[in-house]
């Protein structure tokens, strides 16, 4: 797969190819739309779905101290360890779908082992309820970690790249970024995330509204500072990963709300980067649909997922195998009828 | 997989197991419901998704001569040949999902090769617009073909069985069976199938209404005769397959509207057989949702599929891998916290 050069294909040529297959036109519904999208991201009539990687970026968030959720920051390190042990949800779904899983700790509170220290920007962001979550310099550094990681997996042969994250508190950043970039209200952008009570959800909404108001004061003349002020190390890294994946011709599979916020970040700084993105699913977080609409991306699964950890993107992976097989293995009507 | 005996598990025990995993409760949404359903069909906390087969049953329909669709009966034989050549949509999706594909020609108009003649009941059904599509004896024979095929794949180690079909005209039978069993109107049960014009759809509705009225005269005292009068050889075979799969402990993955009509048939004659069934998707055919509601089955994909040929069930197969992995490979919160 991928060894025979295929001429670049336009969206129109891809549509015609799908319509030429030996079956009623359109009868495979959204699988055909997924196949078309996969082919578009690779500019070919013969897209591939493997080799593929899932990169999980992890980071902690100072805003957790503002009481925006029910989980303490310690859970981030516990989940990093669980993923490392191969017994997290993402570990199981990666194995089930034949996807190589990689974890990059960009900024958890616990210092990583020395061999992983190179990509560790800081021990969690600052509390965005009180001050900017990170400086533009830190944003650059995190972005570069994502870009460098993608360069590495691309060199190892990766063609399809799933993105996911782990970071207690990061749906607060995602809500801020969604409101900031799409222009929706803090109310619309803020959901329960991985867990909420009425009190934490109310606090989260107020924190988001205030932080977005401060970020908007920097908009649009200092977008990086505005984005950085409400972002997370893992989010900035994913944004850098998306932009670099586009440059290297990798298809990117986005996971849920937080990954969507990284895509919004990449979209602001490099709108063309969305040309490589596929939205795996629409999550249970209400702001996610607004983010996807802003990005012009159609989600393929509506499974009420709200775990993150790349799980939704991992569920779509085998459906990409089906989409690629449809375009590359099914006979055309002309071949069947001999006309 | 499947070699260690696991004690029978109740729905309540399966729910508790899912809630015990190291992630927010319910955060994997419909994947958790699919995992629970898969486990229920196997009465175990450790369900398997492989080895798996897709059995495609093919048959022709005399009602095609009444002008109920745009495709001639010859397409059935052409598709049987295409599936045999490995270049049909179902061939591609079976390979992509690691599913063994089998085709059983129960009743196409063209006589099959001698080595396949044993399971061939007749050269298409009679025209249900004028007379009963088949006799109760033919219905029995087709049912037995399905049951015998399942016995064979179960003996070969199959644990998960996808069912699909190929047969020009068979959405007319599916509409009749859906109206007959669920009590909905011919209007509600009849859609365009694989292709329709305004004229063919109008004729199809009238044919369905008349045939269902005649079948209802036999209901409920002679259910087999009523079902047989509007069925298809491939539909009766799939119904027999479902009932036998239940007896042998196989999980059955249903495809679209025609497979749903087979499930309705099995449900009438053996309501317990639905205990083994999972509805892969809700198709674009409007009657399918009514059939699934009658059966109490939740579809997992809403991808506007209307091809048949087992394609929707094949798309769900790798998601069963994910569902099984969730229950069998993810750590519990107690294991992580040591409590």
What does this structure look like?
The structure is a homodimer of 339-residue chains. Chain A has 339 residues and is α/β, with parallel strands linked by helices. Chain A is built from 14 helices and 5 strands. Chain A has helices at 11-19, 29-42, 74-84, 89-97, 136-155, 170-182, 186-189, 198-216, 223-230, 233-248, 257-269, 286-295, 311-329, 333-337, and strands at 52-59, 100-107, 160-166, 251-254, 277-279. A 5-stranded parallel beta sheet of chain A has the order 2-1-3-4-5, with helices on both faces. In chain A, helix 2 crosses helix 13 (311-329), helix 5 (136-155) packs across helix 10 (233-248) and helix 6 (170-182) crosses helix 12 (286-295). The radius of gyration of chain A is 20 Å and the shape is globular. The mean pLDDT of chain A is 95. At the A-B interface, helix 2, helix 4 and helix 13 of A face helix 2, helix 3, helix 4 and helix 13 of B.
Secondary structure elements and pairings:
The structure is a homodimer of 339-residue chains.
Chain A: H1 11-19, H2 29-42, E1 52-59, H3 74-84, H4 89-97, E2 100-107, H5 136-155, E3 160-166, H6 170-182, H7 186-189, H8 198-216, H9 223-230, H10 233-248, E4 251-254, H11 257-269, E5 277-279, H12 286-295, H13 311-329, H14 333-337
Parallel strand pairs in A: 1-2, 1-3, 3-4, 4-5
Helix pairs in contact in A: 1-2, 2-13, 4-13, 5-10, 6-8, 6-11, 6-12, 8-9, 10-11, 11-12
Short description:
The structure is a homodimer of 339-residue chains. The first copy, chain A, has helices at residues 11-19, 29-42, 74-84, 89-97, 136-155, 170-182, 186-189, 198-216, 223-230, 233-248, 257-269, 286-295, 311-329, 333-337; strands at 52-59, 100-107, 160-166, 251-254, 277-279. Chain A has 339 residues and is of the alpha/beta class.
